[in-house]
Amino acid sequence: MRANILIIGGDERELEVGKVLQEQGLQVKVVGFDNYPHSIPLEKVSLLEAVDIADAIITPLPGTNDKGSVYALYSKEEIHLTREVLKNIKTGIPLFIGKAKPFFKNNLQIFGIKIIEVAEMDEVAIINSIPTAEGAIQLAMEETKTTIHSSHSMVIGFGRCGFTLARMLYGLGAKVTVTARDDASLARAYEMGFQPLQLEQIENRIENYEIIFNTVPAMVVKKELIEKFNPETLIIDIASRPGGTDFQAAKKRGIKAFLALGLPGRVAPKTAGQLLARIYIRLLQRYYEKY
After folding, report:
1. Residue 191: CB partners within 8 Å, gap ≥ 6?
2. Coil, strand, or helix at residue 251?
3. How far apart are the C-alpha atoms of 31 and 9, rounded to whole Å?
4. Does the predicted TM-score (pTM) go above 0.90?
5. What are the tens digits of pLDDT across the range 163-220?
6. What strands, in cross-sheet order, belong to the sheet with 56-58?
7. Considering Cα of 59, then 64, then 69, then 74, what sign does the dihedral take?
8. Calpha distance 234→143 (Å, rounded)
9. Which CATH number does the domain 4-120+268-287 belong to among 3.40.50.720, 2.60.40.10, 2.70.50.60, 3.40.710.10?
């Protein structure tokens, strides 16, 4: 198949995706890498000159901001998928994005573009949890004066990312507590050797923990909770923006708190990109009728 794949924006993960797809015989063009410091084996094009010939479009997992600008780490200028751009896209082709803002999704539907949101797909989220968890642990190592081994660490949320993170911490010898609302999740945490704790019971024991990892995209690490923290507690929040931590309250208490977004692209872009590429190949087979 000689399909034209257009990658719009992103970081080194998307470059790696492009390389793998090109090795599979696809024609790959990229937009938004004019400031990338190294040469790449992919054709750089402008958005308007390539969008009308694309058979499928890949945008980065972070998607767009609230103004409609595509995440593009190495672009000289902001990339906007305006109506002028969208109307030139072939009707019915798939456009892959992490999570689409409502206004962007509406515009895509108006122009008959098939939108596939991949961030919440199990196969993507589970794969992405590997470099995310490694990056969170790396940050914890850099920001503490003690080892992860024997640390009292809490993971808030036991979804796809919390599961991987708790398992990795446990493998390093941490004393891991998993906090969740769902009884089945707590039962699984217990089965895996973690200390289960109902989310509503955090306040009773929070002063015992050295590192708090939050994966829940809702305000769970509240001011009232932070006031009970040991001053040396480290908070690493890996939930989607704006996170689930009251960062102002943490700052007032002198507690280190980080909203650690985009960890796969920062700590392991090559591996993350290669893993994503395998998934995109399967998605193209599923959603692109001429594949």
Report:
1. none
2. helix
3. 6
4. no
5. 999 999 999 999 999 999 999 999 999 999 999 999 888 887 788 899 999 999 999 9
6. 43-44, 27-31, 4-8, 56-58, 94-97, 114-117
7. negative
8. 8
9. 3.40.50.720
